[in-house]
Amino acid sequence: MSNFHLDIVTPDKPFFSDEVEMVVVRGIEGDMAILKGRAPVTTPLKIGKVRIFQNGEEKVAAVVDGYISVVDDKTTIVTEAAEWPQEIDVKRAEEAKERAEELLKNRRDSIDVKRAELALQRAINRLEVSKLKKFDEKFDE
Q: Half-sphere exposure of residue 54, counting CA atoms within 13 Å on the CB side?
């Protein structure tokens, strides 16, 4: 399989930069896989996972919104935040999930429902990706 360059950047730092075989992201119209030679595209991303295939292995990171741009043999993902499974603070994500669920359960006119729904989606995504830590750790042995 042919490789192409993938950069993932956040406002804080470059998160990932290397040659990859494929990347799968959740766009606003659903999941999309990027391979070398793909037609140029720029599209917004949803809260979700970035699946990176490199050297026959898969790496997964949690991302928050942003966009993906594919031009020639270079793909760039710009996102508000990106985390590998081992970087996720599970306790903090569980607390954020509980807060968002409580806000949505006890809706008052004063709460921003959309904001609470997005917080819930971010927390659930982070918790799902954090469960992949055990999977990744077996490769590090």
A: 14
Residue 119, token pair as written in the block: 């917080």
pLDDT for 37-67, tens place per residue?
889 999 999 999 999 999 989 999 999 989 9
pLDDT at 133: 62
Counting the structural domains of the chain, the total is 2
Q: Are residues 113 and 101 in the same domain?
A: yes
| DSSP tally for the chain: helices H, then strands E | 3, 10
Q: Looking at the predicted structure, is the pLDDT value of residue 138 above 50?
A: no
Residues 59 and 96 in one domain: no
Query: Residue 99's domain spans which residues?
Result: 87-139
**Which residues have CB under 8 Å from 9's CB, separation 6+?**
15, 76, 77, 78, 79
Identify whether residues 26 and 79 lie together within a single domain: yes
8 with 54, same domain: the answer is yes
What's the pTM? 0.82
